[in-house]
Fold these 2 entries.
Entry 1:
Amino acid sequence: MKTNLKSRLFLMLVSVCLLTLIFGTLVEAETFNFYVVSHGGPGDPFWGVVMKGMKEGAEAITKGTGDTINATYSGPAKYSVEELINMLNSAIATKPDGIAVTITDPAALDAPLRKAIAAGIPVIAINVPDSRPEAERIPYLFYIGGDEYLSGKKAAQRILTVRKPKRAVVTIHEIGHMGLELRAKGFIEVMTANGVPAEKLATYLDPTQAIEILKGYFAKNPDTDAIFTLGSIDSSYVITFLKEQGLAGEVVHGAFDVSDEVVHSIKEGTTLFTISQQQYLQGYLPMQFLYLFNKYKFLPANDILTGPGFVDASNVKDVEELVMQKYW
Amino acid sequence: MKDKRSKFYSSIALLLRIHPEFGALLALVLVFIVFCFTATRFLSLESLAGIVTVASELGIVAAGITFLMITGEFDLSVGSTFGFSAMILALTANAGIPLWIGFLLALAAAFFIGLINGIITVKYKIPSFITTLGTLMFWRGILLAVTGGFAVRYWGTSSFLNGLNGHFLGEFRISSIWFFIVIFLLNIILTKTPYGNSTYATGGNKEAARVLGISVDKVKIINFVICAVLAGLAGCIQFARFKSVDPLRGTGMELEAIAAVVVGGTLMSGGYGNLIGTLFGVLLMGMVRSGLIMSGAPAYWYQAFIGIILILAVITNTKLKGWAIK
């Protein structure tokens, strides 16, 4: 009888221990430390949106799961690959649970990232992928960001759905900027394939000079009736040019990036659309995916394209409000 | 006969010595003739208006640089001053402050920037190249930090802004009137007043100028201020047309303005040059840009052409001047 009681007590004790162990594991909150390291400083409005996405992505997990996400953003105030590498090395040194990084200079980032990956730190590329051939690429998990070349192609296709232009021109304000050149390339290829003569026009940063360059181009090529601008700076002076010359509505204007001026111009009907790479997602999604990978080893089958996303007459009203709230 | 010929040469030599703008005028005429044949609709009023419009804003900045360069100094910060002043006008306009007050505040800011450039250069004996390289970065940095990289737009309309840079005579813009007023006034100051003589003397031979009782430091500081205020004025004039400023506004303008001044025959070492040369220099820059596009040349070539013209103009000026002095 006594032994029976003893063994029962022992069994109960073991059960309690086991249950505590099982449930304890189940409810124990975990903490994950993630870093976003980019070439863009926090003062840049584009990266301000990414930071907002990162912060809200981390908060959503913390609220929804009980686990804690500590998310840290670092990026040099002024474009500098050296500083980007230093920041990345500092992040790696803390042995984080995940890093999202822009592969702005694949050769320079190669060594530190390979070291981090070998040490078991999950790495996701954001905004700029490793552009080298597949065999040479840094073996990060996958890429979350836009596709510049595809964006240019989609812009041309979108204009072609409205009408087939007689001639199309792409303004480029920062010559040699890889992203802008790829957007222009995609656009020109689609236009040319559809029998529309299209070319790049270097307009530089100064708006007065840009407008005279545009006037000169239109004097030389008066049949031009489609124009694609690659960023908010050239969109701004092209909108002024179209209005000053009475060409608003006659020349189809497709833009890139979302600014209040472009939003206003879409509402007025001067601009047909603008393309966004929806960079909020480039901050938000890495938090989600790094968490899901750490927790359950989930991985998407492919890269995740956050852009090109279109803003046009159909959604401009909704976006206008969101631009104010810095989601776009 | 021989006597007559040598008299003719010596009169040309004298003409070249007192007219440093001759080389730029020659280049302007040559380029004009070439484009008349190659560029579509180059000989039209719109095309002329376009060239003058581009030349005007750049020219107002370049006029200030000419003054300063004759004193033997540089200002690399004009592009940042241009953007900074325009931003002040934009921010004050959006804050509901009357535009003319915002305009005066923008000019006052430019005045302040010029004063700092001058005082640092003169009092600490730092080359102005370094001082203004520092202030170029500083003011551009402030501009980026304050705006967070966003462009600032003023949505209102105003007759004040139209007065600064509206239309007149079809395609022409009021900025060109401001430009010609600036060139006219500065030219009178430089050629007809004792202050003009002091400016030349300060850049030519500092010690001789001191002996003559000219306050070299004071002249330099005043010219730094003139240069900055004109850059600020040009920034406000451009804002008046576009009603928006991005934080990169004016980037690279300093080099283009310096190139125009040098093409116009002003010596970088100081003591020699004039505003008529600068007028031709900026018109040449505007003409090359428009002409190349109207000729169907890829716009990517513009900088390469300007580079060649700059070097050719300086070689021509140096040769002509060397020959004239002989």
Note: The longest strand of chain A covers residues 31-37.
Entry 2:
Amino acid sequence: MKIPSSMRSLYKNPFTLLNRYKDTGVKVVGYTCSYVPEELIISAGLQPYRLPNIGANASALTPSFVCPFASATLENILRFESSFSGFVIAHTCDPMWRLYDILKTKISKPLFLLRVPHNTGNELSLDFFKMELKRFQKFLEKNCNGKIDHNALLNSIELCNESRTLLKNIYMLNSGSKYAVNASDLFSIVLAGMWMPKSEYNAKIKELNIGDDKISENVRLHLNGTAIYDIDLIKMIEDSGGFIASDDLCTGSRYFWSKVEKSDDPIHSLAYRYLKRIPCPSQGPLKERLEYVNYMIKEFKVQGVITLAGRFCDPILYDSVHLRNMLVKNGIPTMIIDYETPAQEIGRIKTRVEAFIESIGG
Amino acid sequence: MSLQRKKSRVLQTTKKIGELIMVYFSNASDVKAQGKPVAWITVFTPVELLYALDIYPIAPEHFGAMCSARGFIMEYLEEAERSGYSQNLCSYSRCSLGYVLNGMNGLMPPPDLLVTFRNSCDVYVKWWQSLQMHLKAPLFLGETPYVLSSEDLDNYVLDYVVKQLEQLIELAEEKFGSRFDMDRFVDILKLSDKASELWLETLKLRSSKPCPLGGRDSASDIFPLVVMQGTEEAVKFYEELLGEVKEKVSKKIGVIDNERFRLLFDGIWLWHAFDLIKYFENGGAVFVYEPYSEAWAYRLDTSKPLESLAKKILTMGLNVDIDMRIERFLESIKTYHIDGAVLFSNRSCKTWSAPQLVTADILSEKFDTPYLIFEADMADPRQYSEAQIKNRVDAFLEVLGEH
């Protein structure tokens, strides 16, 4: 697949885009996770920008045993604060919650905490989340000089839905036993969508020449985890004889899998979509997540499952026990790789991945 | 520095806690044997409501603290770790998961219900989901959104929590045939409120010099306020405690004879290294204030029972905005005449530890208060480096002496 270099390599330094936004007078709102509805930010005439851990080390403001991913994200927010009009943190897990606390004492830009219910199955949670989204809407209007009208919101929902459809169409090319798209390409495209203007992004995706199904003997894998911005890690798995046919990442399929329903009550539709989406390990019923992994395994003819578990990521560390138990019971080979800073541990991880792939028969 | 050993003491009432705990757990087994429901709860769950519904609450966090303090936690930690739970996960959770995987042959009878409200940390969600995966008991996963301002105690956030309490009542009625009686519930709330009132009055007396109630007391004395809120036994205990503390104040008897430094302790206590508190006391330093000790004290408005209880579980512990928490922290420096702060960076409690460095800096900037931060784990003794930490305590006490 030929991907324009502006998209392919954006993950290496996505902050370059901030200069472009500054030069063109675009106001940017930084957000931390896929539970923040980009639609609301776009409808306010603002550019949503997903805050990654790329290029930063863990902040000295947090203890060493607190999620290095959240800590590096904190470092990036402090480094690039002046490029943003405001920040939105989603309360999903403890480190993200406390990231908000720390930022409140450290930055002067408007800051918003979106309280995402963990019990997504409870109908009361939907009502609560609708109220949270209305509060978020007011925050954007008041602090970021954005005005949101009904039609603008409907349009931004359509724009984001279009992105989701385009990405899912590409993703499904790997279904069954097909080898159409490498995950390293696919994930770099998905990431670009979290930083680029959505309409420009959709246009570029439509121009992509995906190519045909390839012949490959690589072992088909499902990748389980949270947020992976480090595409080199993905490439390493591919170089070791793996083909990541499906995933359960919030920088992967979880980001675009389900769409927002069209309705006259867009806030309700947004609340419903974001609460009932494929859950992050920190949210929602565990059973739903396990079912999703099972579905992916069948749909994409997966031969083995790799869990990338951040060393201090509580949600993935708890879930990995239950996921492993389920996979072992179902006879699916699985391995859990715990890591702190992938770039510094890639040799160790590669050895384990190679052994795993070899054991499956790659 | 060689520290001159000083005589330090705990209160007579504190010494009764051990027996109270054993009775509490043995009651749980009796209740279970009678076929009545037992719930496993996280420690910021509204136990008053469970008592009103005739559901006996047990807190695995307590169990973890107790196993750690009595030196038999390793068996459970290792069992959980063998089953795949990482050493980087909360040690309380590993203890209870290990206990479950080990067959539950101990003080906690198996639960008929799992109840948590996500107010103190998000780990509660994953921990209780994990318990459910192993135990297959029904799970009530309550939400208590982070309180960003006082407005949240009077808007849709409060409504959300009140309605969930109503859901919990419905669940108990449906599953266990519990009958919710409002008059009885209000009586229970009155007892809970009384216990909080007595405890808060007792804590205030720690501003006296010398301080009559130290860290070893407060760490133990909090127990009835956590899981026995709404019982007559708890009220009786706090009446007795207050009486003894008042007497100490009037006679000017402190925790130690020569009180040199008055300290704040931020964090959960190290249950396996309780002697660390004594080590401070031997050096002439006494703990006079801990946010932990205040976390369960709440004055209830019994004219609005469910609403008031909802406010209580919303504002407990670490669930209120950092500005409000820092304000309380700073206030305590003046109220309790604090000379220095000890902050325990607890590997198991990321939600508490994550913003500690920021808090410490603010404390230092505003009041020039020296502080000590050390890293360990509240229940896992493997993460505790005794000699190293005691060296740092020595150095800290020297700094305080020169300050």
Note: The first strand of chain A starts at residue 28 and ends at 31.
